[in-house]
Design brief:
Helices cover 69% and strands 0% of the residues. The protein contains 7 helices and no strands. The longest helix has 29 residues, at 53-81. The radius of gyration is 19 Å and the shape is elongated.
Length: 151
Amino acid sequence: MNRESLATAYKPLLYKYLSLLYVKEIDWDDWKQEGELILRQLIAKYEPEKGDLSSYLKKSLYFSLKSFRKKLLEKQKIVYENFPEENHKKIRLRGLSKREKEIIKLIYFVGLSEREIAKRLKISRGSVKIYKKRALNKLRDSISKEDFVLF
């Protein structure tokens, strides 16, 4: 099989991982394009004598995407931190429960997916969604409309 047909054959695996690791701060089209590039690079680097292609791609693709996502989120964090303090408001998490704060921080500041948070906190993914929804509703209610400037 040539490299192009291998890339096509492993696209379902790629899209599974892209969906699993996706966070809202990343543009989906860029994320997908970068994933396809990573898949092609991994196929080009593959050495048959080191093991099975499927095993290699499953492991390498997942960790390569996770690493790339981390770099992207760190880059965005640096850009955000370079804005002068008066240009953005601090959102206080005072009204949230301990678990709601923890989940909001893990999603929006650490960049974990709901599935990763569920595994880390040993709770169901549905619970993560519920805590996230409650927290966002509380934050929305606590912030006045005058605090926002729409661009």
